[in-house]
Amino acid sequence: MAQIMRLTTHQQRSEREEAAQVAEQLSLLSEELLQHLPGEARIAISRATYARQKAARPDTTEGLWPGGFTMLSRNQTIAIWDAIRALPSNDRPHQVRHVFDLVLVNLRQDTGEVLLTRDQLAEKVGCTSNHISRMMGTLEKMDVIRRERRKIEGMQGRGMAVYFINPHVAWNGSLDVRKAQAAETRPPMQLELLQGGAS
Predict the structure, then answer these.
(1) Where does the record place the HTH crp-type domain (predicted)?
(2) DSSP state letter for 107
(3) Which residue intervals of the chain are DSSP H helices?
């Protein structure tokens, strides 16, 4: 039986080779030198190295980890699952768990941004966008995620809500960036405070 091969153009091969060379050069920077750089510079170098490595070896369906992977804190994740199960029924614990699982597998690399919009989450969970807002609010109270407002040109109001995973819970991307983000973020609060809907 003939094997189907993925077509790679000459330009794609050249771009991957160039990315691999850049990543190799960046990796030659000594740990001693990096320690003397400001934190922002170290993060920028880490992000650039990671991006070049990814460009040199893009995800493919044939790979060991098709679509990439997310690193999880086992203890934090179990604590969050337990706290979600303990939510009162009117807080929709089953759907909150579904939202949390979707968040975990849809993270932008090196920022922890949740890539699914509120409407996309609503479609996947099978509920309204307003219900998603409340469920994301529950996860936010747990310090599982944080919310920022992103101004959109031509859009009135505070801007679109953008969510980020707490790096103490999960991460997708460079560990150097994750460490820097975690240093500026508190771990999820003691989740028993949310028992019975009180927070």
Answers:
(1) 104-152
(2) B
(3) 10-27, 31-35, 39-56, 74-85, 93-104, 118-125, 129-141, 175-183
Place of tokens 């560990």: 175
Count of H-run helices and E-run strands, the chain: 8, 4
User: What's the whole-number average pLDDT of the chain?
Assistant: 76
- On whether the CB atoms of residues 143 and 188 are closer than 8 A, the answer is yes
The β-bridge partners of 145 are 165
CA–CA gap between residue 105 and residue 175 (Å, rounded): 17
162 strand-pairing partners: 148
The CA distance from 188 to 18, in Å, is: 41
84: three-class secondary structure by DSSP:
helix
Strand, helix or coil for residue 71:
strand
Position 25, amino acid: Q
- Asked if 87 contacts 93 with a C-beta cutoff of 8 angstroms, the reply is yes
pLDDT digits (tens, 9 = 90+) for 142-184: 999 999 887 767 667 777 788 999 989 988 777 777 888 888 8
CA distance linking residue 115 with residue 107, whole number of Å:
6
Q: Helix or strand or coil: residue 138? A: helix
Q: Output the pTM of the full model.
A: 0.64
